[in-house]
């Protein structure tokens, strides 16, 4: 079977790396689905979306002269990839949220320390003489 750019074919995932998944296509050829072409959402860990031996429908997005085949899962299944989002959505707080939490906790610890220290000295404003 001739693999042409733009055609949609079925294949089987044969390997997973941190940058994408290798898919065996009809005719025994292998192509790569880059991690950016797995889903319509951000993919941090490809293992949350694909497993070895999964049957997938992919779109051939490039075939270079050396025989490398670029594939896309999200272009072949535009609605299905959004539904394949990770089972455990992870909320990553922004830097500003982390900083605000740190400052709040730091202020609370400091006020507790001051209260404890003032109690040992006899309170604020006590005379030393």
From TrEMBL:
<dbReference type="GO" id="GO:0003735">
    <property type="term" value="F:structural constituent of ribosome"/>
</dbReference>
<dbReference type="InterPro" id="IPR050437">
    <property type="entry name" value="Ribos_protein_bS1-like"/>
</dbReference>
<dbReference type="GO" id="GO:0005840">
    <property type="term" value="C:ribosome"/>
</dbReference>
<dbReference type="GO" id="GO:0005737">
    <property type="term" value="C:cytoplasm"/>
</dbReference>
<keyword id="KW-0689">Ribosomal protein</keyword>
<dbReference type="GO" id="GO:0003729">
    <property type="term" value="F:mRNA binding"/>
</dbReference>
<feature type="domain" description="S1 motif">
    <location>
        <begin position="6"/>
        <end position="74"/>
    </location>
</feature>
<keyword id="KW-0687">Ribonucleoprotein</keyword>
<dbReference type="Pfam" id="PF00575">
    <property type="entry name" value="S1"/>
</dbReference>
<dbReference type="GO" id="GO:0006412">
    <property type="term" value="P:translation"/>
</dbReference>
<dbReference type="GO" id="GO:1990904">
    <property type="term" value="C:ribonucleoprotein complex"/>
</dbReference>
<protein>
    <submittedName>
        <fullName>RNA-binding protein S1</fullName>
    </submittedName>
</protein>
<dbReference type="InterPro" id="IPR012340">
    <property type="entry name" value="NA-bd_OB-fold"/>
</dbReference>
<comment type="similarity">
    <text>Belongs to the bacterial ribosomal protein bS1 family.</text>
</comment>
<dbReference type="InterPro" id="IPR003029">
    <property type="entry name" value="S1_domain"/>
</dbReference>
């Amino acid at each position: 079977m001739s693999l042409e750019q733009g055609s949609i074919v079925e294949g089987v995932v044969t390997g997973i790396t941190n940058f994408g998944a290798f898919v065996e296509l009809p005719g025994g050829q292998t192509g790569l689905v880059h991690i950016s072409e797995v889903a319509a959402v951000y993919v941090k860990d490809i293992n949350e979306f694909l497993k070895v031996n999964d049957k997938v429908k992919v779109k051939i997005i490039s075939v270079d002269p050396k025989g490398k085949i670029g594939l896309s899962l999200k272009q072949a299944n535009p609605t299905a990839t959004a539904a394949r989002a990770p089972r455990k959505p992870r909320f990553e707080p922004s830097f500003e949220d982390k900083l605000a939490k740190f400052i709040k906790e730091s202020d609370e610890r400091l006020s507790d320390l001051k209260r404890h220290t003032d109690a040992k000295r006899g309170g604020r404003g006590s005379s030393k003489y």
